[in-house]
Each structure stands twice: as structure tokens, then as C-alpha cells.
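Wed. Picked up where I left off yesterday with glycerol-3-phosphate dehydrogenase. The coffee machine is broken again, so keeping this brief.
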Amino acid sequence: MTVTIVIRRRCAHVLERAGERRTDARWRESRARERGKEFDTFARVIVNAAGPFCDSVRKMADKDAPLMICPSSGVHIVLPDYYSPEGMGLIVPKTKDGRIAFLLPWLGKTVAGTTDSSTTITMLPEPREDEIQFILDAISDYLKIQFVRRSDILSAWSGIRRWLQIPLQSTGSISRDHVVLEDYLWSCHITGGNGQHIEDAVDAAIKSGRLKPTNGCVTEHLRIVGGDGWDPALFAILSQHYICMKKARNGKVIPAVMDTAVSKHLSHSYGTLAERVATIAQNENLGKRLAHGYPYLEAEVAYCARNEYCETAVDFIARRSRLAFLDTDAARRALPRIIQILASEHKWDKARQNLELEKAKEFLESFKSYKNAQLTDGKHAGK
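Structure written out below (C-alpha cells, as returned):
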């Protein structure tokens, strides 16, 4: 079981929970591993915010705890940019079978979705072909295109929503609201809903642990790292003052301009810290793009390894960048170079590099682009 501590939107640090005990002072000790080292952590209150895995964590403390989660599969597909105009989206509030569908521009491509069907909880959920077919059918009726081709799908993935069973252990009524549950004096559980549930969980933790904060909530106006001093014109400064030094296959270093697509990507992804990434691209010969047609630079892998806890290849293709979600096959082609840079940063041996490649390929198999999809359909199949 893993518990994720979100440090910032682009940076998550994963701790593997190996055991726990309770002391007389109502402190909780957990054993965790980071890079093979064990250490103890202590807290007055544990907040279980494990999403669809919330019930699994609850049952560690009480094996008879009633189930709270009713998992639901939400599938999305990514199509080329010509399926949606820039800055404009489409929502179908009621499809032929009563579900919702949407089409939105996203990171230079088009994302379409979504489904809402019962599923089982797994670490690597996969989209079913009938769910992909539903999305294709739903959006085809609203586009001035003869049909949406299955072969146009660059990536398709499934996520698990954690709807609540009301009452607990009943599948007759499903709630999309959130709930904060206090099982013991030292723990509270939060699941379901969006937005407001985070503040409610903190309030419950304060009450449960009898904590005495010195002030109220301060995060509403707190800027993320890189936000202070950011200006929309920063991308122009990057293009003017930095160059991308690229190493060719023959080992020769070639200077190249930092084009607008790359500079805009760096500015919007890293804020004022984009200049640090640009400096690595210029001074360490890591200015080459990781995948043709996408603005991600080799320098980003090195920067994220040094500053954003990027510990695995999957960390980069799925969480530090969105390449796996944008184009599964492009992510697969970029893997060898990503692993090579991470190996240099983390001092990996050949065995670790091979393991990273194997795990990343397994992760990408849960995505269903046209090339790795095992099923095709008749109506939407295209060449």
C-alpha cells in the first residue's frame, strides 16, 4: 500500500508503508522506505486520503470496517489538435444513453471523455474498448468530420473515481459528495468530492488531534513554487536569452534556438524557475527534445531529478510531464533517453536501468493508443 504526500502539483513523494504502532502519547509511528533506507515518522493524527484505496488503509486498522468506496471507471482519449479549435470546448450534457461527453483542447491536443461505469480497484486500470467506442460515437455526432477514426487516438486511459456508498456497504445509493470519517482519536479518513473536502479534512484533523493552530487557513492565496514574479511574457525572455545546446548522434554539440513552443511550455510549467531548466539545456548540452512534436526537453529530466523528487521513469512520463497521457507511443520512444539521464543523475547500474524500462513499458501497456490496442472496431477503424 502506498501513501502519497503531494508537495506541489508537479511533485509527489511516495512513501511505502511497512508497519505501524500506537504509543501511549497517541502518536503514530510508521515505517517508510526512501531509496532503500528505513526511517521513523511521527504524527498526532493520520489523515487517510488514499483516494480509491481509502478502504484498504482503513482495514489495516480495523479489518471489519464497512466499505465506503464504490469505484467507478472514467475513461479519456486524446486526439490530434484538429479535432478542437484553440480555446474552445464542447460538452454534450446528455448523450443518447443519458451520459455526459466533452471535447476540450489540452496541451496542444484534444481530450475527449468520459465514462462512468462500475469497475474494480487496481493500481493500473485499463480502458475497455466499449468505453472508447462510446466516446467516439458520442462526439462523432457533433463534428463536421465523416467519422472519428480509431487510428487517430494517441492515448486512452482510465482513472478510478471514488464515489461513496450511502449508507455504507450499500450499492443502492451512490453519492458524489465527500465525507470525513473519524474512526479513532488518532485518525480521520477523507474520500469523495472535490475542492472543499481538503479544508474539511484539515479541520477534522485539528479537532481529532486536539491541535492548536496559531492562525486560520492561509493556502487560499498561496502561490505555488515558481509563481512569485511570473509574467506572461517570460517565454519571450527565454527565447531571447537562452539557446538549446543539443548533442548529435556523432557526439558533436550543436546550438539551436529555443523556439516559442518550448519557451511557452517551460514558462507555463515551471514559472520563474523555467530559467533554471533553460540554463541546464544551455550549459549541460541537454537542449534536445525528448519526442518529436512535443516541447519536453532533456534538461527537464535532469531538473526534475534534482529538484522535484523524480525517482523513476514513470514519474517523468506521467507526473512531471504528461507525455504518456498525450501520446503513448511517443512516450515509449522517449524512454531510453529518459532512463539514460535519470541513471546519470541517480547513479543507476545497468540492472536498475533495465528494471526501469520494464516497469515503464508495463505502465504504458495500460494505455490504449491505436498502435498498442488489441481490439479494433469496424465503424471507427481507419488507416
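Quick read: DSSP finds eleven helices and 16 strands in the chain.
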